[in-house]
């Protein structure tokens, strides 16, 4: 059996261009032809798998940071937040003027103010924050985004919540409640005057999704390779046998790497896959 390859998307498969290079596409297909299995392993919800990512044939996907696991087009795992806890989170965020998006299987439900926040920020504020850039840009690329007023908490499960706090202290005030139930991942920098990130259910991470995929195929963890660039890839890179980390990642993340890739827009993934012998 070949290797199990798990690829983050934003900052890993795609850089600032938001496009997958042709060489990277070819590398993934050649790796599969060489007997390896390739999976997306992303914080994106299923409805956010848009753009040229759809042009690449993968063996499956781990979405919403482990909330959904898809193999050969079928969901083998779905996980949703407890409705009472979700209700508390929504109330907490609304009361503290924190903008948020609820990620569900079929749609993303967005609070008012997200567009206005983006309009107030110059595009350069997003240049080094790919997750924030995605938060704004992907809504123009075919995602099923709906207003929060259309969300029915009794009928629709939520697996992850993304947030933007224009006031940093307002978010810090929420942390004591959130950290009891969630892994909190932030993408903004210390010097930013806002905080953006996501809350992910504990014990339901990208790493848990990887374990489910490997068990599904009755494989072994010694055959797993993870490619990532940010702290929401930490558990994934910690769990896999071989971590492949972006050279510009934080020191905490790079400590988990055995190999390192350069700018995705400059064929960084293709080059490292060649270096590792996954492709010819």
TrEMBL record:
It holds the Pfam family Hydrolase_3. GO terms for molecular function: hydrolase activity. Keywords: Hydrolase. It comes from the Bacteria. The keyword Transport does not apply. This is Cof-type HAD-IIB family hydrolase. The lineage of its organism: Bacteria, Bacillati, Bacillota, Erysipelotrichia, Erysipelotrichales.
